Amino acid sequence: MSIRKIIFCDICNQRGLKTVEFRRAYRENESTGRRITESRAWIEGDVTDAVENGWLCTPDGQHICPICRIRHDS
Fold first, then answer.
1. What are the residues whose beta carbons fall under 8 Å from the beta carbon of 51, sequence distance 6 or more?
2. Domain assignment of residue 1, yes or no
3. How confident is the model at residue 35 (pLDDT cuts 50, 70, 90)?
4. Containing domain of residue 40, as a range?
5. Which residues have C-beta within 8 Å of that of residue 68, sequence separation ≥ 6?
6. pLDDT top residue among 29 and 57
7. Considering the domain boundaries, does residue 56 fall inside one?
8. Residue at 42 is within a domain
9. Would you say 21 and 61 are in contact if contact means Cβ atoms under 8 Å apart?
């Protein structure tokens, strides 16, 4: 039996909701249009997988998705 690890973004998905992203016309870094998830980010894997996919893991244990990282860097 394997254990699934899921990391949720501490900015846009504080409640830890895991739903499938479903958009009519998806464009990178766009959060408008018909959608189900309202851009709640999560990744299946461990911290190493998250970092390899552009996530930021802060020293105090927060996980920040690539889109929130771009929004908050500016």
1. 57
2. no
3. very low
4. 6-73
5. 9, 11, 12, 41
6. 57
7. yes
8. yes
9. no
Query: Per-residue pLDDT tens for 59-69?
Result: 999 999 999 99
Who has greater pLDDT, 34 or 61? 61
- The total number of structural domains in the chain stands at 1
Cα angle at 38 between 32 and 18, to 5 degrees? Answer: 145
Instruction: For residue 54, count other CB atoms closer than 10 A to its CB.
Output: 13
Of all residues in the chain, what percent carry a pLDDT higher than 70?
Answer: 70
Q: Six-digit token pair at 69? A: 């990282």
Closest CA to 64 of 35, 33, 37, 43: 43
Q: What pLDDT score does 8 carry?
A: 92
Inside any domain, residue 15: yes
The whole-angstrom separation of Cα 3 and Cα 25 is 33
